[in-house]
């Protein structure tokens, strides 16, 4: 099947210097000299940043999500990953970036016009002319339909601009070489803060497998707590072993 994302340029760029200046003044988003937007990670991880998915990311995306050491510890996506699946994901992510900045151009800042954070790809700057390294993905977006219903009513007096109709879901997957270095905790904090302070999230969920305590610690650092009533048994695909695993949901509520 032909690449449905073949028509997209490699990078999402914001051409208008005026818009870049306005966005940088109102949000934590920064821009490269070429106009590619990104979210920076704090010290001592300042060489890492989160940006929109690039077409050139696809081989690395497929390779990471086809590594059983990574995919075997998370719920979804398809395993092994395929280029077609990654291409469709790129189309989705590029659409969110376009919607976000179209909203900014119209003066829509809080909440963001896009229902998903397009700054999902974590990269490491190497410098000295070396290309940036694909590290992984941190996704965050509002869930539609019955599954996106809030588990707890929002408190009285909440800011009127916040989105109170659905749950925001967050998840992360990093290349195995970057596991255990503290990067996931910092990157998810940046995305979490964007969801709360810019997207207007009032309830954030993270789904994980009980056998993955490292992931649980990442979410606990952000203040998410497991709702044990939401534990379910799921059968993993045969390509992941076919065993029955316990799925957990960690939740953060705006206080």
Description:
This protein has 255 residues and is α+β, with helices and mostly antiparallel strands. 28% of the residues lie in helices and 21% in strands. Helix 2 crosses helix 4 (83-105). It is globular, with a radius of gyration of 18 Å. The mean pLDDT is 94.
Share of helical residues: 25-40%
Shape-level CATH architecture? 3-Layer(aba) Sandwich
Number of helices: 6
Radius of gyration: 18 Å
The stretches of 5 or more residues where confidence is low (pLDDT under 50) are none
How widely separated are the two ends?
48 Å
Number of strands: 10
Specify the biggest β-sheet: 10 strands, mixed
Order of helices and strands: HEEEHHHEEEHEHEEE
Average pLDDT confidence is: 94
Count of the separate structural domains: 1
Beta content: 15-25%
